[in-house]
Structures are given as C-alpha cells and as structure tokens.
Amino acid sequence: MRADAQKNYDHLLAIAGSVVAEHGVGASLRDIARKADVGLATLYRHFPTRDALLEVLLRETVDDLTRKTNELETSRPSYEALVDWLRDSVDFVQKYNGVVTLLASALADPDSALHASCTELRSAGARLLRRAQDEGMARLDIDGADLFAIIGAIGWIGDQPSFKPRVDHLFDIIVGALLVNKTA
Predict the structure, then answer these.
(1) Please, what sign has the CA dihedral across residues 120, 122, 125, 129?
(2) SS3 sequence, 131-162?
C-alpha cells in the first residue's frame, strides 16, 4: 500500500475506533465516514461490510492480548499474570459496547473473520489459568471456556448503565472466588 493510502487507512481506522468506542459495535458507518472526512464509498472500499471493519478494529486488540500472555507467563507470578490478563480482557470488552455478543458469536462460528483470534485468546487465558491451577493458586473446577465466559459476563455488566459503577467491585469478587491462595 502506498504511504499516503496507508496513512488514510490508518486515519479511517482510528476514527472508526473512536466512533465504535463511543456508540458501540452498531455505530453508524455513515458517521464513521463523515467524521473521517471521507465518502461512504471510500469507507466501503477499505471495509466492504461492518463485520470487515469490526474484524480489523478488534483483531488487533485481541491479538495484542494474546501476545501479552507470553510476557505475563514469564514475568509475573501465576496468579498476578492471570488477574492482569483478566483485567486487560475485561477492559477491552468494556471499551466497545456490544462487543461481548460479537466475540461470543465469532467464537461459535468457524467461518467468522474473528474466530481464529477469539480461539487463540481463549487458549491464551486457559494457559494462564492452568499455570495458576498447577501452582495451587486457582480453582481446579474451571477451564478456559469458563474464563472466557466470565470476561463476557463482566463485559455485559459493564454495558448496563445501572450496573457499570459496580464492575470493579464485582471483578474483585470474581477474582477472589477464582483464586484459592494469593499469599504464596
């Protein structure tokens, strides 16, 4: 891609990120194009569908969370790595209203453009969980799918205006129930 085309693409993606953060995954594509100061045809040339735009927008963050798992595995005690990863994952799903449903659908649909990234993210969390379980730091009766569901549940709570102020408190309660021995 030419340098100017890449700059325009990056600008469009940055604007899309801010609009989706403000209005959720159902944000108007027309609003995104208008705020990016491009025509709707230009937006569709780069992203032929809403799903294509969301896939690019979300995949980068999902992939970053997956990569961060490797750092956490080698740099933090198992329970801290797990809690840090959970916090980052919850922060991500709270950034975009409606993303929980999108990720859950992508995970269940092998044909989804986000399926591979979601599967890798769930596996990354499962690795951190297994490490904490192996060290006696986390409950043994949950798995990576449960962990992914917990992230989705907390994300859904954060999407509800009346519950949003309680998210941090509820996160702490859930983490307390997940970990069995934080003092080791």
Answers:
(1) negative
(2) HHHHCCCECCCCCHHHHHHHHHHHHHHHHCCC
Contact 146, 82 (CB under 8 A): no
The sign of the torsion formed by the CA atoms of 9, 13, 14, 18 equals positive
Q: Do residue 76 and residue 158 come from a single domain?
A: yes
| 51 φψ region: left (φ > 0), alpha (ψ -120 to 50), beta (else) | alpha
Q: Where are the alpha helices (DSSP H) in the chain?
A: 3-23, 29-35, 40-46, 50-75, 78-95, 99-108, 115-134, 144-159, 167-178
At a CB cut-off of 8 Å and minimum separation 6, what does 31 contact?
A: 19, 23
Separation CA 184–CA 102 (nearest Å): 38
pLDDT in tens, 76-107: 999 999 999 999 999 988 888 888 888 888 88
Do both 107 and 76 map to the same domain? yes
Q: Are the C-beta atoms of residues 173 and 131 closer than 8 Å to each other?
A: no
| Residue 61: inside a domain | yes
